[in-house]
Amino acid sequence: MRHVIALDVGGTGMKAALAGPGGELLHEARRATGRDRGPEAVVAGILDFAAELRAHGADRFGEPACAAGVAVPGIVDEESGTAVFAANLGWHDVPLRALLAERLGGIPVALGHDVRTGGLAEGRIGAGRGADRFLFVPLGTGIAGAIGLDGRVEAGAHGFAGEIGHIVVRPGGTPCPCGQRGCLERYASASAVSQAWAESGGGPDADAADCAAAVAAGDERARRVWQDAVDALADGLVTALTLLDPRVLIIGGGLAEAGETLFTPLRDAVRRRVTFQRLPELVPAALGDNAGCLGAGLMAWDLLHATTAPTATTLTSPEVTT
Q1: I want to staple 69 with a disulfide (CB 3.0 to 4.6 A). Which of 276, 282, 294, 296 is the partner?
Q2: Closest CA to 12 of 122, 139, 140, 138
């Protein structure tokens, strides 16, 4: 059976799968990145993991994978296949696509940014399915974004498209590691909410999930912390939708797990801020932590179809089992 390798590399762990022609996940596996042993060990672990997946596929399906897709964090040069920089993995200028292609017997390999890869999956088979324009914003340790335009996810001229977390929403505010002050992710990421709630009396071990639970229970201090984050997020989202005019706005990541505790006030806050703009549909992400792996599989199949497809990615796809 024809299949591809899909690999999603995170800061602490890797999730991988063998994906069938319809995108269905035929085999899934997880492994630690081993980042405590240094960047060379991380790269070696990725190559070994991919090789094991290839061997498993050959044994189970009678033939090795015909392509591979890999999603990685940090700065990614998708055109050259280079993992340029990732602070949490410690690597610089790793020719990951070439290394994987060599290790996997010369098969085509696609390398993508983790958020854009997850956004591709959400746009094609998840919450944005069928939309010609979407914006995917995961709210995790930081905040990033993926811009879906006419069936593809836009990387930008230099690979930085979608970095909504570094829109300045509070000029002169909290310093950000990027060098600016008042960036969105310093106010509305899961880590920012965790810190604000801990400082407001939630306790030293409090996190964003605890704050959301306290909001749902009617705690006024938690409600103020939560509303501050929602207001900052709405400011950033309205800036983004003014520039991009998406048809669907998809919110994912850890904060989105709060459900309507987040989405009800967020929809209200965005609605209050729009004037001439058309209000997009604002929905939760549908694929959870499978998005990156599913997107990596889609990228791999796209490589095989590139000679006949008009673009590298399209928003029409067979059904996928998640």
Answers
A1: 296
A2: 140
Q: What's the pLDDT at 264?
A: 97
Determine whether 188 is exposed, middle or buried from the number of CB atoms within 10 Å of its CB (0-12, 13-18, 19+). buried
Query: What is the pLDDT at residue 305?
Result: 84
What the block records as the tokens of 239 is 């800036």
Nearest to 87 by CA among 217, 177, 22, 20: 177
Give the start-end residues of each E strand in 99-151: 109-113, 133-138, 146-149
Assess contact for 7 and 70: CB atoms under 8 A: yes
Nearest to 114 by CA among 250, 286, 295, 287: 295
- DSSP state for residue 67 in the 8-state scheme: -
State CA 145 to chain mean position distance. Answer: 7
The DSSP string of 260-293 is: HHHHHHHHHHHHHH-SSSPPPEEEE-SSGGGHHH
Strands 133-138 and 146-149 turn out to be antiparallel
For the stretch 104-121, pLDDT in tens is 999 999 999 999 999 999
Residue type, 175: P
Q: How far apart are CA 295 and CA 151, in angstroms?
A: 13
